[in-house]
Structure formats: structure tokens, C-alpha cells
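Chapter summary example.
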Amino acid sequence: MNVNWWGPDVIGIDEGPIVLMIENYRTGKVWQRFMRNADIQRGLQKAGFTIVNAVDETPHALPTVYQLFQNYPNPFNPQTTIRFALPRREHARLKVFDVLGKQVALLVDETLERGNHARAFDGRALPSGIYFYALTAQSFTQTRKAVLIR
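The structure predicted for these 150 residues follows.
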């Protein structure tokens, strides 16, 4: 067993994907091709993610229960929308956390009217990975997960 060992070589393991990341930023084609892969789709489904093809934008009646909806799109790159419903006017907090539980964004911290609400989450400054977003209002708390793939 080697103790306090490290290799003398410097390996730029993060350098290879840069060209792909630039192309994906320019056109989005890398992401589109990646998401067409059947193995990727199966893996995301096994991990508990649901496929969302569209979001119904038609107005609905005022909510009678608290709801935190799955973000759309999910997985996302680099922006997504988080929707939630409040059955009455009250103070609400919508926070985003990394997998270590560190808060990375505060999207809502205010008193909101009864109804359906949506907030954009921009992950440009964050690394790829799984994130959790939590809505807290009155005696209600719910958490969902989102995947940022850059």
C-alpha cells in the first residue's frame, strides 16, 4: 500500500470536452444528440426522472392545495423553469441545493398571492450534476430533483 503517493504527470482531464462544450453552447446539437440515445433515456428513467415533452400553458382555476411541479425541461442546460401552486396568499421560499445540501440559489423569499407561480433557474455558473429544489410555505415543504448537464 502506497501512502502519500502522487504521480509526477499532470493530466488535463478537463480539457478534452471543451470543444464539445463550445459547440453545444453555440448550437445545442451535442445536447440534442446526447438526449436521443436510448441508454441515456433508460438511465434517466431508472434514476426517477420523467420525460416531459411540453408544458400546458393554459390558465387553470385557482389551486386548492400546495404543489411543487417537476421543473421543465429536465434535464436542463443551462436554464429551466420551476412551477408551484399556493392555495392562499402567504410567504413562500423556493431554494435550490447541490447534492451536499449547500444552497446554491434562492429563487423566492416573499409573500405571494394565491395561485400558480413560476420561476426561472439559471445554472450557467454551476457544474453539471443533480440539484434539489425545495418549496417551503406555511406547514408545507416539498423537494424535487433536477439535472443540469452542461
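To summarize the output: The mean pLDDT is 87.
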